[in-house]
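Lab meeting tomorrow. Look over both lines:
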Amino acid sequence: MDYVKAFLVGGVICAVVQLFMDNTKLLPGRIMVILVCSGAVLGFFGIYEPFVDFAGAGASVPLLGFGNTLFQGIKDALNKDGWIGLFMGGFTASAVGISTALIFSYIASWIFNPKMKS
């Protein structure tokens, strides 16, 4: 049942984002920023953690989850290191995910040999 909940919640998030892309004049980059900031705001108000507990990867994998991860990292670093944590907490919390994305995209570029559009 956990897989079904994750699939449905992740699908709903993606469908809502697709509706924003199709029915507004917002550019994809701005929508991505809205998602990351929304995840951080929901994490600040304590709404996102119960949502992740319910939906699992369906809530933690999309960009909303990335914003929440950044917020949690900053919050933990602020409690541990003081104000300097404001600048390093997000990097510490999200380093593994960002590094993984960079490494796998680099490997994919070897396999698929991307070309510039002309």
The longest helix spans residues 85-112.
